[in-house]
Amino acid sequence: MRWCAGAVQSFTPIWLKVMSVDLRKLFDAWGQTAESGYVDQQWLLSKWEVWEGIVWPPEKIKVMVQSITEGLKLKTSDTLADLGCGGGWILKQLQPRVKSIVGLDFSQSMLNRALEFSPQQMLVCGEIGRLPFKDQGLDCALSYFVFLNFLDDDFVEHALLDVLRVLKKGGRALIGQLPDKSRSQDYDRAKADYIAYCQKNFKLGRSHREICQAPQKLFDIGQLKRFLDGQKIAYDFKKSFNPFFRPGVEPLVDWRFDLVISKS
Ligand SMILES: C[S@@+](CC[C@H](N)C(=O)[O-])C[C@H]1O[C@@H](n2cnc3c(N)ncnc32)[C@H](O)[C@@H]1O
User: Which of 135, 204, 213, 219 has the most CB atoms around it within 10 Å of its CB?
Assistant: First the structure.
């Protein structure tokens, strides 16, 4: 079963509207450039730092899925929403590990790619910040490589509360791949090493940075903790999967973090 419907809301704050629309245009355009190419080049929509032509080996995908599964403490009885699912490749990996999974994205062209890639997925066109899900309906939520594009602190906080709203009591959400502001030089070094590795080992096509110039936020962990403490939200900061993982480098890194929040 699947459906794609725009979320109907009675009230949207102006700042949320402005921010979301710009990002949506950008991802829509990116999704369109991948039309019909996505099925064969299944990682295209997720290779943020690099180029077409790079293959993610099964070991890398396994490490990433493992880190998400453990971070969320996923059980086969769980209902899960992948918020900002893009082309649906993480969704597809996680599907066998849970009872049910729904992908949500505000870009229709991204959802079209997800349907091309995996026609059986359950998909919803909707927006983080005003999720079209009922209160306390889900065991788990995942948002991976998504919040790093939310530049506005107020919006990040608003979005976290919205995610929390749709979780059942005892439910968990993993907000993944948040860049640590105080470690940005370590990230830059890791990226430069990875680019050198890719140039040596792959025949590179276009750079995805040229295709999609999404803004990226650096997160102040102290500020985030103050917000979560103030809201009495239970949380845990975990090391992130290394997006530059390859043989001989650490699978998890501490210059990015995954925020796991739980509903009490
Ligand atoms: C970098 S992609 C990541 C996609 C996927 N999670 C992955 O890791 O491959 C970010 C996705 O989040 C979506 N997105 C960004 N802001 C959103 C919002 N406020 N609500 C819903 N989707 C959003 C974009 O359309 C895009 O598909």
Answer: 219
Question: Is the CB–ligand 1 distance for residue 163 below 6 Å?
Answer: no
Regarding the beta carbon of 111 and ligand 1, being less than 6 Å apart is answered no
* DSSP secondary structure string for all residues of 33-66: HTTTTTTTSTTGGG--SSBTT----HHHHHHHHH
Do residues 39 and 87 lie in contact, with contact meaning Cβ atoms separated by under 8 Å? Answer: no
Q: Whole-prediction pTM value?
A: 0.92
Distances from the Cα of 84 to the Cα of 45, 195, 201, 224, 245, angstroms = 12, 26, 31, 21, 22
Helix (H, G, I), strand (E, B) or coil at 115: helix
Please indicate whether residue 176, judged by its CB atom, sits closer than 6 Å to ligand 1.
no
Encode pLDDT of 78-119 as tens digits. Answer: 999 999 999 998 999 999 999 999 999 999 999 999 998 888
Q: Is residue 114 lining ligand 1, measured as CB closer than 6 Å?
A: no
Q: Which of 20, 26, 27, 208 to mutate to test the pocket of ligand 1 (most atoms within 8 A of CB)?
A: 27
| Structural domains for the chain | 14-262 (3.40.50.150)
